[in-house]
Design brief:
two-stranded antiparallel ribbon, mainly alpha, 3-stranded antiparallel beta sheet, about 5% strand, about 500 residues, single chain
Amino acid sequence: MPPGVTILPHFENQGAFYIILYGERRHLEKGKQWADSEEAVLRLSFSRDDLANDLFGLTPPKIKWSNLLVRFLVLTLAISLLLILRRPDAILLPQFWAEDGHIFFYQQFYHEVTIFAPYQGYLHLVPRITALLADHFPPLWAPLIYNLCSLILGSFCCAWLSLPHFQHLVHDYRLRLMAALMLALMPTAGSVQLNLTNLQWYLLVWCFLFCLQKFSTSKGLIFATAIYLLFVLSAGLAAILAPIWLLRAIVLKERRIHSIAILLFHAGYAATIRIFFSQELHPANTLGQLNLIKETVKLTISRVALTGVLGPKLMNLYYLNAPNLHLIFPIGGAILAAAWGLLIWRVRPRRKIILHSLLFSYLILGSVYLSIRFRVPMIEDAFYFNLNASRYFFLGESVFYLALMEAVDWLRADRRLNYFTGVMLVVMGLVVADNIFVVPVFENTNWPRWALGLEQVRGTGSRFPVDIPINPRPWVIRGSHQLPKGVLLLRMDSAGRP
């Protein structure tokens, strides 16, 4: 019998057995002959339980909640500090970003909508609840409250990956910790960090993790499900997770009613959006379907995989100086295929690699496809889309980093590849370190001055007369453009002269 293999009887079906192969349960068919080689054991067929165990984990982890809670809170605090170091101006000089002021603050300040009002065809429950809470404070504090909410929830979402509920994905806690830190220090995060507008991408990553985690207690499941529903109603791309709940309901017997209920929730939410809010959706992309799929694959190779590994500095340098940009796609595809082939060749069991590859590929390609599906002007200028639209690749890159950590976890078991995995970790660390401060510093729009004016019109029934500039230009908080009589409006030229 191969080393590392243990036989356990399967009492539900006499004559069948389970084997424990290097710590993982495998099913042995009735009448299957044993061989002395490891390869013969690994060729055993698998049951639905094996599929469920590979994707979602069958055995809940044994958790000491007091230690786990302390460790999780410490990690969340550490990630918060790292995010602040990346963008200290978000706390020291808070400014609105895009829809933070243009939509959420404006509509809440003038009480135009409820928290269930859609924007761009879907709901934004978390940003609107934050705007509702901030409305109880002076306008001066609003940008800081928005950024603090984004900081706390973003750190929470990143730290979630470190929990032992994901041991079936990445068994080593240190690698899960590194994956959580890489989500926080993602080289390509750019304008995604520390603003309420783009918080939805962190919430989407948390929802993806929740789909795959093992549940230990019913109380924890109820609490996490409530968070999941709140986040789904705040992230436009959350519909991409519905097929995972369908798969979970099919292969996982435990808590099947829970999976079906969430699947029905996704279906009902999608139907509601389509029926009532479809007029707010972007027009369909004018590119043909085949061209759209081709662009999706190209952007996935260049923007998710290569930029995620090499960092935006190096990739931007290549884009600006390469004589032929088209070479990057076959070269990048060949590198990815070679890396996947190495995993298939060296790591056992192969079935888990194939299942996770299919799942992660669906999420990466699907998120990129849906992101560019309604972005007609950007996709027609692929260079601009590739360099500046980091938010549309955030879920794909997060899944890609998780896949890298999982690959490192698998390869570390092979002593002959220990040096290779060590080099991988060093390269990833260097890329993060080199790009850690590649985030925009927001322009100082002198918000305290504008906030003073807003405080004066609050509760009067009138609106602020002029547009208030916010980041990025030319975004504004709209004014009424109706000046009181006797007021002279001065306009400045580019040199600052009246």
